[in-house]
């Protein structure tokens, strides 16, 4: 008897090339002993609804889409008492989760094979005021690029679309006064950027130190970038970050189970690359080992 497998597909993700490879991928899954039931998302948030409504009847869930689709699906699993093990075939643009766990990107057949031969690993989920986030919640410099970049540009240019958007946003860079409460104390100052994350990669080109991060250790990484004194300091910092070097007096990295951010005025956030609205105060906490992620 074959093992039931729920598969959520976002037909708008990536460049749409999955349609050609999907039949062969489904045959691979069938030959490996899975009975696949397909669900296609129709709008933003639909993956959450599908996961909450149907995933409880399946021992496995396989998501084919971008990081946003995966985040929605996992958020939909959180209310369930029994959650299926989760696989991921990334066909998005930045693919931060794929970079973090070493999955093949935009290759449906390789993704299906990786799922078949993969092993479940514990993965922490993040809880925020009003919902969940999968791998990053962020405010400040460049965070608006991920959701402000037109979908068509993402399809045509891939990660380059984000970099172009980042360059355009340089003129709007500003610091804001923030008070951050976390496990070990309080940080207060002027910051260009801040985030809570459970990922080695953010925005497709910023890499956090892998040796310091455990994806299922019950901790999120709190990252803050201080206000820079001048353009030269900013240029030097960008050069270091793009070369994957975060050793700077302007960068703070803490490991924490929780964090609370308080702003002088409402600040716009992104959750897993999607616009999360403006918040004057917002809290986050780690949901330890909430999901078993197959890779």
What is this structure's SSE topology?
Elements lengths: L2 E7 L8 H14 L2 E7 L5 H9 L5 E6 L1 H11 L7 E6 L5 H6 L6 H10 L2 E9 L2 E3 L2 E5 L4 H4 L2 H7 L1 H10 L7 E7 L2 E13 L3 E2 L3 E2 L12 E7 L4 H12 L8 E6 L1 E14 L2 E21 L1
Residue fraction in strands: 35-45%
Helix content: 25-40%
Distance between the termini: 24 Å
What radius of gyration results from the CA coordinates? 19 Å
Shape: elongated
Average of per-residue pLDDT values? 87
Oligomer: single chain
Return the structural class: alpha+beta
Number of helices: 9
Task: Profile the largest sheet.
Answer: 9 strands, antiparallel
Compressed to H and E, one letter per element, the order equals: EHEHEHEHHEEEHHHEEEEEHEEE
Low-confidence spans = 145-167
The overall strand count is 15
Entry summary:
The protein contains nine helices and 15 strands. The chain is of the alpha+beta class and 295 residues long. The strands form three sheets. Strands 5, 6, 7, 8, 9, 12, 13, 14 and 15 form a nine-stranded antiparallel β-sheet that branches. A four-stranded parallel β-sheet has the order 2-1-3-4, with helices on both faces.
Give an account of the 3D structure.
The protein has 295 residues and is of the alpha+beta class. It contains nine helices and 15 strands. The strands form three sheets. Strands 5, 6, 7, 8, 9, 12, 13, 14 and 15 form a nine-stranded antiparallel sheet that branches. The chain has a four-stranded parallel sheet with strand order 2-1-3-4, with helices on both faces. A hairpin with a 2-residue loop joins β5 and β6. The two termini are 24 Å apart. About 8% of the residues have low confidence.
């Amino acid at each position: 008897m074959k093992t039931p497998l729920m598969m959520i597909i976002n037909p708008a993700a990536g460049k749409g090339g999955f349609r050609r490879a999907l039949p062969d991928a489904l045959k691979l899954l069938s030959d490996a002993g899975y009975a696949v039931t397909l669900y296609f998302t129709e709008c933003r948030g639909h993956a959450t609804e599908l996961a909450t409504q149907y995933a409880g009847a399946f021992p496995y869930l396989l998501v084919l889409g971008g990081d946003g689709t995966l985040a929605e699906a996992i958020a939909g699993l959180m209310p369930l008492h029994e959650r299926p093990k989760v696989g991921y075939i990334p066909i998005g643009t930045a693919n931060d989760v794929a970079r973090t766990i070493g999955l093949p990107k935009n290759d449906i057949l390789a993704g299906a094979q990786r799922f078949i031969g993969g092993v479940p690993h514990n993965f922490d989920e993040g809880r925020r005021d009003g919902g969940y986030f999968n791998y990053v919640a962020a405010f400040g410099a460049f965070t608006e690029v991920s959701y402000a970049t037109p979908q068509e540009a993402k399809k045509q240019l891939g990660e380059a679309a984000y970099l172009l958007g980042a360059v355009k946003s340089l003129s709007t860079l500003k610091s804001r006064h923030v008070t951050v409460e976390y496990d070990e104390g309080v940080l207060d100052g002027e910051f260009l950027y801040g985030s809570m994350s459970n990922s080695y990669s953010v925005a497709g080109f910023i890499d956090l130190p892998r040796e310091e991060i455990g994806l299922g250790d019950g901790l999120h990484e709190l990252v803050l970038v201080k206000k820079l004194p001048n353009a030269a300091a900013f240029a030097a910092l960008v050069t270091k970050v793009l070369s994957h070097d975060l050793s700077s007096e302007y960068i703070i990295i803490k490991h924490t189970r929780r964090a609370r951010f308080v702003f002088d005025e409402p600040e716009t956030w992104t959750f897993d690359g999607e616009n999360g609205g403006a918040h004057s105060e917002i809290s986050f906490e780690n949901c330890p080992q909430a999901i078993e992620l197959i890779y």
